[in-house]
Amino acid sequence: MRVDSERDEIFDSLHRRSVIIIMVIAAVLAIKLAADFLAPIVIAMFLVALAWPIKTFLSRHMPDSLSYTGSFIALIGGLAIFVGAIYLSATEVMEVAPKYQKEISRFWKETKYELAVNGVDTTEKVNLEDVRNFASQLLLNFQESLLSLVLVIAYVMLALPVVTTWSSKLRNCFGEDRAERVLSALQQIGKSFQNYLVAMLICGSISAISTYLLLVLLGVDLAFTWGVLAFLLSFIPVIGAFLTVIPPVILAFLQFDNLGMPLAVFLSMGCMHMFIGNIIEPKIQGRMLSLSPLVVLISLSFWGFLWGIPGALLAAPLTHGGIIVCNHYDRTRWFSCLLLENRKKDLSG
Fold first, then answer.
1. Is the dihedral of CA 167, 172, 173, 178 positive or negative?
2. DSSP secondary structure string, 10-65?
3. pLDDT tens across 180-229, in order?
4. Where are the domains of the chain?
């Protein structure tokens, strides 16, 4: 009987674990298949988290209806600045592109010659139909991005007034005591996540402005574009700073006829981003959660696999959000401990 009981316990344990594994795999597949539906919602949640402190501040000085309107206008203004920066970057690239057409052609011919010398076949010509298809796909992706942006704005506009009603809905659904515990957890999680997003925006802005000013000082073209790129890549920890350095160095090779300037760009930008990452960012982020480089790479691969480029940009915020949620509960705190680089520093107190 005892053997049968132990066998039943082992079978039940294996069954539960198998069900959990199957549910996790099914959830991952569902997230991947529903990327077009879920990504705008997740982005809207991030924007609501950013806009909520503005709404809370405005509600102290004006009626709720005006505070909602003011926070929404502030959020739209920030998005307009971001979209305008992207547009100006694209305009800057289009203006400078003809200048480098001959340089790129010369570089390509020299590369083909070197490849041919080493036995690589370079006789294959570019198919114009493939170029047209590529351009059409870019245009289609741009249109889809605009539609997603409109959808995100609609989600934010509808979600902001609903947030304040959640407390009463939770009390009606779960009772006063349980609702208070849930609301306390949500408030702490939301506060931690808001602090993280604000810190990332500040660090991204510092990185963008520093990159722009440095490249203007060095005389490298497309300085504004590289600044915008630095802002976007700042949301990718560890790897983002490295990726920010590569495009200006490549352009410096094309722009200048010597190796001195590309080397100067590489060293100056590398030192600048090391200073920002090791001195400025820790002071701004303080005791906030810090991911190890291995976890960053895994999260980038995971969310990039699920949602492509948007997933790669959202990988760090999504991972931090999951860690904050896991850290709030005793049963899942071990998981956040595994993902963090320094648990005592990040989660004590």
1. positive
2. HHHHHHHHHHHHHHHHHHHHHHHHTHHHHHHHHHHHHHHHHHHHHHHHHHTTS-HH
3. 777 777 777 677 777 777 888 888 899 999 999 999 999 988 899 999 99
4. 34-115+133-164
